[in-house]
Amino acid sequence: MAAERGLPNFKETVAALEQYEAPKNIELFTAHNVLSEREMRARIHVHFHHYSSTVRIEGEVALQLAKTAVLPAAIKHQQQCAKSINVS
Hints:
This protein has one domain (3-84). It is mostly helical. The protein has helices at 13-18, 23-31, 37-84. The protein is built from three helices and no strands.
């Protein structure tokens, strides 16, 4: 949909966030007195920090979930399978 209108469509967050730093975008914001270049750079920093913090937290949660739910359930299932084998 974005491509049909000639707009960029970035598949990765980092690639999209990097567009804030494009000189044409900084020029656009500064030319219309929306944000200064310093404010733009600060905003970019905040966005990258927020994104990296979110990714870190999601990774930690996934690891904790694997340790506390997935692995114990897999071990229990493996034990049940092992007990069900009838060795003669």
